Amino acid sequence: MTIKLVHLSDIHFGCENVGAVEAAIEAAHAFAPDLTIISGDITANGRRHEFEAARAWLTRLPQPQIATPGNHDVPQWSLAGRFVSPFRLYRDYVGRPDKTAAYLPGLTVRSLNTARGVQLRADWSEGAIDFAAIRAAAAEMRVATRALKVSVRHHPLIEPEYAAVTGGVHRGAAAARILAKAGVDLILTGHVHDPFAIPVSGAQGGAQGCAYAVGAGTLSLRTRETRAGFSVIEADADTIKVRSLAWTGADFETEAVWTLARRAAPPIKNHNRFEIPNPVFMYE
Description:
By secondary structure, the chain is of the alpha/beta class. The chain contains 6 helices and 13 strands.
């Protein structure tokens, strides 16, 4: 069984790359994914008209979808909005900002929100994690024995050395190891605007494979080291292939490919509720 995912991030409606954003719809449908994942920063400044454009675009992408907000999806220029209801517009136009999950045949996905309206530190754009939520997600993932297990958030828990910006997630590596030990295969993120795929340090390796931190690029004009683009992922029983697609100005072309060893699934002893015949989405 092959699982196919489209991973988009950092569209930044308000300063989006119009051509790339439009072409991504056709490219995503051509890939025929089992699930479309959007890992935050859907808007540039968290304004209503940006969310309206984002929702219109999301409805044209392949279904089903799961999304999580980014630091730009809170009101950038409203201090009161940041304090009182930072995710009100996100909730109105996209959906629940926290703890959304997708359970499909052969696939378990859980998102956690790492964005905050305000924080007790100078840079509010940096990510924050709730270790209780991380442990709860890990416990849930541990049950899904045969599924490809995917954790989604905006800020990288582990970042590549070449990243132009940092996600700033305190104890992010420790959180990633908790997920890895629970059998999570992929930790999908955005924020840095450059695609990457790196193993989680300390995760189990060898015949069991390991977990990987995987970042998507951006579909905005705010490119850094690479061109605008997004990623597609294919996973079978043995490997996970991550392909980064870059916008040429007329089409998407493959810019990088990572072929990752997938950890072996343990034998099933009992029926588990995550291996179900029909797609189910949960919002908590």
